[in-house]
Amino acid sequence: MHKVAIIGSTGMLGQPVTKAFIEQGFEVSLLVRNSRKASNIFGSAVRLVEGDIKNADSIKELLQEGQDALYLNLSVTPKSRKKDFQPEREGLQTILAVAKQSSVSHIGYLSSLVHFYQGHNGFNWWVFEIKEKAVQSIKESGLSYSIFYPSTFMESFDKGAYRQGNRINLAGNSLFPMYLIAGKDYARQVVKAFTINNGSQDYIVQGLEGFTADEAARIVADNYSKAKIYILKLPMKVLRFLGKFSNTLNYGANIIEALNQYPEKFEAQRTWDLLGKPEITLAEYARNS
């Protein structure tokens, strides 16, 4: 595979993957809403198609010029509702329909490890149901696939869901260690999977060390040099109550409950053997952020 098209390239997790493909010499095409923003991030090394996954014609244009593979970084927006257009549901169906009529022979998809908590302890969340069905749709598409199931990303603690301003926000009790992975390490594994092209594969993606959310927050706070980081912890019932009045906070309550309760164990040895061992520790990541 030499030509790869990417949907979801400019966000927190899309950027390191896209940059890794570029660095390894792939011809990269991106579907973006804002071509100026994408050009500022990636320069002239990529082919840009401005459009949206709601529009099949945008996807058709992206997959022209003999694309070999497609990488998807899709997600549910925290403020959205179940009945809203969802990239991993309606968007994915459009993408797969177009991809099957194109030159694309392989598809990569960023899923999540914690979505396997669905059905445990009576937990049932429509967001995880969407993720389950997305995996099923890809596997039934007839295209070969690489599906990645990452643990929590280190970026969540300094750029993502846990971080607000100079605070890391926690809630409830984190019961099990999460094997946090840096976006750059994940990106290297994704590109290696596309390089070796060993057919349809599922990859558990985990980092070098396992920490509870409380332990991880303290490591980031102790090693982050750009600002003084404070840790705020709410009782879970308070976050649940606030979630009654806000889609975003309701999303946060559900994802934190799942992360706190999911009995994650180390399962990534096979991925390391095939795609390479991660290199970045959480303390190193925080110092260099």
From TrEMBL:
Origin organism is Xanthocytophaga agilis
GO MF terms on file? oxidoreductase activity, acting on the CH-NH group of donors, NAD or NADP as acceptor
Cite the NAD(P)-binding domain residue spans from the record: 8-167
UniProt xrefs under InterPro entries: NAD(P)-bd_dom, NAD(P)-bd_dom_sf, Polyketide_Oxido-like
PANTHER family to which the protein is assigned, alphabetical: FLAVIN REDUCTASE (NADPH) (PTHR43355:SF2)
Q: Which domain of life is it from?
A: Bacteria
Q: Any idea what this protein is called?
A: NAD(P)H-binding protein
Q: What is the lineage of its organism?
A: Bacteria, Pseudomonadati, Bacteroidota, Cytophagia, Cytophagales
